[in-house]
């Protein structure tokens, strides 16, 4: 039986009807048409579904949407306006850290969390923080460089 819930997504309250078993990922993608978070594995192993819930990176495929009620949810679509990308989005683009794009939204949101907690991480800290994300295209070096450039204030 569907329940009416209010989710605060990207700064806006959204009232929707959902099944109690629906994951946050399915609600974001299927009910709210926010398709930045991807669903390649569905078991929390790849990081492509990462969103920020109360400023913490969460695998949206593992969280029930009901558990997100009353919490601030930020998806890649809500990180910055399209015409004024977040420095991480710009740096990923400029450094070629975007290939197929499957991991990119989750990787960027996870990197934002890292930089919010540690504005000058070492390369080892960056690599450890993105450890739960699978990227089959870039080999991670360009991703790490993109994050480092933002941390060092070099990103445009």
Overview of this protein structure:
The chain has helices at residues 24-31, 76-79, 87-94, 104-117, 123-129, 141-151; strands at residues 3-9, 12-18, 50-53, 56-59, 72-74. The chain has 156 residues and is α+β, with helices and mostly antiparallel strands. The longest helix has 14 residues, at 104-117. It contains 6 helices and 5 strands; from the N terminus they run ββαβββααααα. It folds into 2 domains: 3-79, Ubiquitin-like (UB roll), CATH 3.10.20; 87-151, [2Fe-2S]-binding domain (DNA polymerase, domain 1, Orthogonal Bundle). Strands 2-1-5-3-4 form a 5-stranded mixed sheet, sandwiched between helices.
Give short descriptive properties of this protein.
156 residues; alpha+beta; Ubiquitin-like (UB roll); DNA polymerase, domain 1; 2 domains; 5-stranded mixed β-sheet; 6 helices
